Hints:
The chain is of the alpha/beta class and 209 residues long. The protein has one domain. The strands form three sheets. A three-stranded parallel sheet has the order 1-2-5, covered by helices on one side. A two-stranded antiparallel ribbon has the order 3-4. The protein has a two-stranded antiparallel sheet with strand order 6-7. A hairpin with a 2-residue loop joins strand 3 and strand 4. The longest helix is centred in the middle third of the chain and has 15 residues. The chain is globular, with a radius of gyration of 16 Å. The two termini are 15 Å apart.
Amino acid sequence: xxxxxxxxxxxxxxxxxxxxxxxxxxxxxxxxxxxxxxxxxxxxxxxxxxxxxxxxxxxxxxxxxxxxxxxxxxxxxxxxxxxxxxxxxxxxxxxxxxxxxxxxxxxxxxxxxxxxxxxxxxxxxxxxxxxxxxxxxxxxxxxxxxxxxxxxxxxxxxxxxxxxxxxxxxxxxxxxxxxxxxxxxxxxxxxxxxxxxxxxxxxxxxxxx
Length: 209
């Protein structure tokens, strides 16, 4: 299976990954598309869901491959994102044990979005104790209609895939009493709230059809 290069991917992404076998093959030759998880993730704060969006350098009128997308530092988005993460999860049960894994990423300057996303993917895999190599594609892998994960996992659409089902298992969230359970947030939400139990939640959330 080929995985899109998402930023702090949502729980659905990892639910498929934990029951898939072999290396994590990440697509880097697809065209970058706005309004997707390629440059954003969703976390849960005191006032509801927060979208953390990575600004990228725009090439007007041109299609850009994912591997060539550059991060824009005109705004101090790293400080804003890290402060949002702190305010959302400082009281989460496992945040203090995982903070040191994520903190350096938000203080390092990345030229390319791909490199930032890959580093965050490695961090999540390590915290989940999933010893899976991450391999970047050498050419574009065209998916069959209905089987493209970049389409199936989308911030504005329900999960639909011809080979997999995703039914999010409920887990504890810091602000669940205020907002109810919020589905398919960033893997950070699950890790900070559930710690070692995160892999169990992931395995309970997806299956092959």
